[in-house]
């Protein structure tokens, strides 16, 4: 099972990166990239909210094996839809060894200051986004004194906020991405601080809606920004960097959150996570300036003209982002 999970995770990372790269290649020339990402984001949050409930009903009625078989079958349906969806950008492996492609990707990041700083800031943010995940159950049951149902309600509140955030992103097509990214990150931090201070389950749920709304905007804003900052032939590679960061950095957050909760209190974990997120938002904004997306230059010695092709040039590292982009999406 562990071996299958490892293989599945590697393939999922590749699939996610290529999906976002293809979306960018197809939609950016027509100026519809943000609209396309908004549609994907709504689909993601809605499915994340509905999926667990449907799975629970199937498991209760037919068993775990049936649920897994149906889940596997759904991927075959998706594969069929992709095969029959019409022409897609041609996948063409880039010439050279993996090490050379990796070196070229790192060189591209060194050249693109805004892209590099964005990825570094998001990587740091993932640590604090994820810090609260290991202690949520303890917080709900011991700190707030609620049961399984209360914990479920708190998670559902975050999910409801995510759906609200996805609608906000879809409706805010005229708002600049740096503004959306800044304020959505602040909203996640504010949600964590609200949960840290919440005296009751109802207050924690209200704060969760705020944080979830920020979550629903923040992740898709980051994806859109990375796509807009990246040349076409580097899309798959840079999206793989983002996805890999979203896979690796949460592990640091899990350890940090657990250590703080054991040494101090679950509320302190939420407090540290919230303050960390706010600090990263402010520092990143100060470092990158206000117009970092408007002065994009997608040319350069490593930026080749990919035309209608999308190079398969992933960095070989083994998501989700935490909290659903972070974890719940």
Number of domains: 1
Rg, rounded, reads 20 Å
What is the helix fraction of residues, given as a range? over 70%
End-to-end CA span: 23 Å
Coarse structural class: mainly alpha
E-strand count: 2
- CATH top level is Mainly Alpha
CATH superfamily: MFS general substrate transporter like domains
Largest sheet: 2 strands, parallel
CATH topology: Growth Hormone, Chain: A
In terms of DSSP E residues, the strand content is: under 5%
Number of helices: 11
Mean pLDDT rating: 82
List keywords for this structure.
mainly alpha; single chain; Growth Hormone, Chain: A; 329 residues; 74% helix; disordered C terminus; two-stranded parallel sheet
Short description:
With 329 residues, the protein is mainly alpha-helical.
Notes on the protein architecture:
The chain has helices spanning 2-27, 33-62, 64-83, 98-111, 113-131, 136-143, 148-171, 177-197, 201-229, 235-263, 266-288, and strands at 90-93, 309-312. By secondary structure, it is an all-alpha fold. The chain has one domain: Growth Hormone, Chain: A. The chain has a two-stranded parallel sheet with strand order 1-2. The protein is 74% helix and 2% strand.
């Amino acid at each position: 099972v562990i071996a299958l999970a490892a293989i599945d995770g590697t393939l999922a990372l590749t699939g996610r990166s290529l999906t976002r790269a293809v979306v960018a290649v197809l939609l950016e020339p027509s100026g519809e990239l943000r609209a396309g990402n908004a549609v994907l984001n709504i689909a993601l949050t809605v499915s994340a909210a509905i999926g667990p409930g449907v799975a629970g009903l199937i498991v209760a009625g037919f068993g775990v094996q049936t649920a897994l078989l149906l889940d596997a079958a759904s991927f075959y349906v998706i594969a069929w839809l992709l095969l029959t969806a019409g022409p897609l950008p041609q996948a063409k492996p880039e010439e050279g060894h993996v090490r050379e492609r990796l070196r070229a990707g790192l060189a591209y990041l060194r050249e693109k200051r805004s892209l590099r700083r964005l990825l570094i800031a998001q990587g740091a943010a993932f640590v604090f986004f994820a810090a609260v995940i290991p202690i949520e159950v303890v917080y709900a049951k011991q700190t707030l004194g609620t049961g399984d149902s209360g914990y479920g309600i708190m998670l559902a509140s975050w999910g409801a906020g995510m759906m609200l955030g996805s609608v906000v992103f879809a409706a805010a097509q005229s708002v600049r991405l740096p503004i959306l990214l800044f304020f959505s990150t602040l909203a996640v931090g504010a949600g964590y601080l609200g949960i840290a201070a919440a005296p009751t389950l109802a207050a924690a749920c209200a704060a969760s809606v705020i944080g979830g709304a920020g979550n629903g905007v923040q992740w898709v804003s980051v994806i859109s920004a990375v796509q807009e900052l990246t040349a076409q032939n580097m899309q798959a590679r840079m999206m793989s960097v983002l996805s890999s960061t979203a896979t690796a950095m949460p592990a640091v957050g899990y350890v940090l959150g657990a250590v703080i909760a054991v040494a101090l209190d679950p509320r302190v974990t939420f407090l540290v996570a919230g303050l960390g997120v706010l600090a990263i938002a402010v520092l990143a904004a100060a470092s990158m300036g206000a117009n970092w997306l408007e002065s994009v230059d997608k040319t350069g010695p490593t930026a080749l003209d990919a035309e209608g092709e999308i190079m398969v040039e992933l960095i070989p590292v083994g998501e989700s982002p935490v909290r659903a982009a972070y974890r719940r999406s």
